């Protein structure tokens, strides 16, 4: 009875009283599930918790901000192991806003107290070309360049619409206010994500406001990271579980696995939380860790998504139970491992741990979620392994199967979310080898010009469906 009465009430600072909230010193763009399971959790768990609060902005829709703001930024983190759930109420997010609230974003970036900007806006959110440069021809980017050119005199509801455009706008304010240096930390699954973010931010500033680009070159530290914690979308059943446990309504709980990893490389000129207290690791050379994670974990995720969906599976754990999918993962991993410093990175143990993590049936990680934005993802998850294997004179069958499975999936999928959707649709109008070539070209032009690669991609397609 008491639980029922409490469940009428929502989780917030009145129903869940806390000590004084920390001051905002971090601005985060991309208020999604992952940020709340990862960086916000590390910030809350660190001993510096009382010093570092986060203001979060959504990317494209206000929904996540509205729900979280109504709870004073508080939310429940459900850590879901194979055997049960544990619950923590995380309080490091002190403000949650829609990304279009530019006045507040600009105010925060003008403040000397703001020391760090972090990003989880998805791979596609950076609008980068396959060569890593900003795609200035993308309509959203071109519109942002125009908006930034009139940033002194923005209309009421005008202004840049992409997270990178909004960030560049705020950096212009920081420059004018002489508020000092700042660190920008990319927490998206991108290869060399510090350079990718620099290319996007610097490229946009250079196109819109060259003096600002020079200021960015001098005053912004781009920090690279490898981020890891499997965090699927929250379901209605999760809301019920939290209500039962907490006795309060929480409209924004997050479900994640117990495993978590954060490796960072770069400097923080205005300071940072003591994230290492919560297990984060700071290294000089990020690349081997990043490759290990992007190729082995994310590469296998994409392989399971495209093969699994074609074979009638819906979650990662289900696909892994399919002996074919599981064999293809091992075959891909063998190839990837050959191109990693295996001993130093303890790849055998890493692979064993991944199998255990993927097999957690209580984490319902939807293959359809992983399948989105394939052209961007495969460039980082499978292509580097293909390139390394081909240059060593090997056929790269395991990694080529990831590309082949993607081709098979796009040819039968009811809905495709991808930044290259127009090129994909055009390719689907073609037949036979021409179709294979055009689809492959949406991922990599060079691979599409390699006849033996195309032959292998076509040959492997049959095995996925059989
Ligand atoms: N979920 C995970 O397990 C996980 C783990 C490691 C890293 N990541 C990284 O975090 C990213 C976000 O994951 P999530 O689970 O929080 O997703 P999510 O869908 O919960 O949130 C994504 C956020 O990015 C914004 N966004 C999405 N597409 C955008 C676009 N094209 N332009 C601008 N903003 C956009 C959304 O509005 C939202 O604020 C992933 O793409 C990945 O790079 C996720
Ligand atoms: O989040 P995405 O869309 O980049 O990729 C889907 C998954 O591969 C990814 O979310 C992993 O679960 C995550 O990277 C694990 O740390």
TrEMBL record:
- Tell me the enzyme class: oxidoreductase
InterPro entries the UniProt entry points to: 6-PGluconate_DH-like_C_sf (IPR008927), 6PGD_dom2 (IPR013328), Mannitol_DH (IPR000669), Mannitol_DH/Oxidoreductase (IPR050988), Mannitol_DH_C (IPR013118), Mannitol_DH_CS (IPR023027), Mannitol_DH_N (IPR013131), NAD(P)-bd_dom_sf (IPR036291)
Question: What Enzyme Commission number does this protein have?
Answer: 1.1.1.17
Give residue ranges for domain Mannitol dehydrogenase C-terminal: 285-453
Transmembrane domains' residue ranges: none
Its recorded reaction(s) are: D-mannitol 1-phosphate + NAD(+) = beta-D-fructose 6-phosphate + NADH + H(+)
Q: Name the keywords, alphabetized.
A: NAD, Oxidoreductase
Domain Mannitol dehydrogenase N-terminal residue range list: 25-276
The family database entries (Pfam families) matched by this protein are listed as:
Mannitol_dh, Mannitol_dh_C
- Give the family from UniProt: Belongs to the mannitol dehydrogenase family.
Protein name stated in the entry? Mannitol-1-phosphate 5-dehydrogenase
Output the lineage of the source organism.
Answer: Bacteria, Bacillati, Actinomycetota, Actinomycetes, Micrococcales
């Amino acid at each position: 009875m008491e639980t029922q009465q409490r469940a009428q009430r929502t989780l917030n600072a009145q129903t869940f009283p806390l000590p004084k909230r920390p001051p905002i010193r971090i601005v985060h763009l991309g208020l999604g599930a992952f940020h709340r399971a990862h960086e916000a959790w590390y910030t809350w768990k660190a001993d510096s918790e009382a010093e570092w609060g986060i203001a979060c902005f959504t990317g494209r829709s206000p929904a996540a901000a509205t729900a979280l703001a109504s709870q004073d930024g508080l939310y429940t983190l459900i850590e879901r192991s194979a055997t049960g759930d544990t619950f923590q109420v995380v309080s490091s997010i002190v403000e949650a806003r829609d990304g279009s609230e530019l006045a507040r974003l600009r105010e925060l970036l003008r403040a000397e107290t703001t020391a760090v900007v972090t990003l989880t806006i998805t791979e596609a959110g950076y609008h980068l070309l396959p060569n890593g440069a900003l795609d200035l021809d993308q309509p959203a980017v071109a519109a942002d360049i125009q908006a930034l050119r009139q940033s002194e005199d923005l209309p009421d509801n005008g202004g840049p619409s992409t997270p990178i455009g909004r960030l560049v706008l705020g950096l212009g304010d920081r420059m004018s206010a002489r508020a000092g240096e700042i660190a920008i930390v990319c927490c998206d699954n991108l290869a060399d994500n510090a350079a990718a973010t620099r290319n996007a931010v610097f490229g946009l500033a250079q196109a819109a406001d060259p003096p600002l680009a020079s200021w960015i070159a001098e005053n912004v530290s781009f920090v690279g990271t490898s981020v890891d914690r499997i965090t699927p979308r929250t379901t209605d059943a999760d809301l019920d579980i939290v209500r039962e446990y907490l006795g309060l309504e929480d409209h924004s709980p997050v479900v994640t696995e117990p495993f978590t990893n954060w490796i960072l490389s770069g400097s923080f000129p205005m300071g940072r939380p003591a994230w290492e207290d919560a297990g984060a690791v700071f290294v000089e050379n990020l690349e081997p860790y990043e490759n290990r994670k992007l190729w082995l974990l994310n590469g296998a995720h994409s392989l399971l998504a495209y093969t699994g969906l074609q074979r009638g599976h819906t979650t990662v754990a289900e696909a892994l139970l399919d002996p074919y999918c599981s064999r293809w993962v091992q075959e891909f991993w063998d190839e990837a491992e050959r191109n990693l410093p295996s001993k130093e990175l303890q790849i055998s143990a890493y692979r064993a741990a991944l199998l255990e993590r993927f097999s957690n049936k209580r984490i319902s990680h939807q293959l359809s979620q992983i399948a989105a934005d394939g052209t961007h993802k495969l460039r980082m998850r499978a292509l580097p392994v293909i390139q390394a294997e081909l240059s060593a004179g090997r056929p790269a069958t395991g990694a080529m199967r990831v590309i082949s499975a993607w081709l098979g999936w796009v040819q039968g999928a009811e809905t495709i979310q991808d930044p290259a959707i127009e090129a994909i649709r055009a390719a689907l109008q073609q037949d036979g080898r021409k179709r294979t070539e055009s689809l492959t070209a949406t991922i990599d032009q060079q691979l599409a010009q390699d006849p033996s690669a195309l032959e292998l991609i076509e040959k492997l397609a049959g095995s996925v469906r059989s």
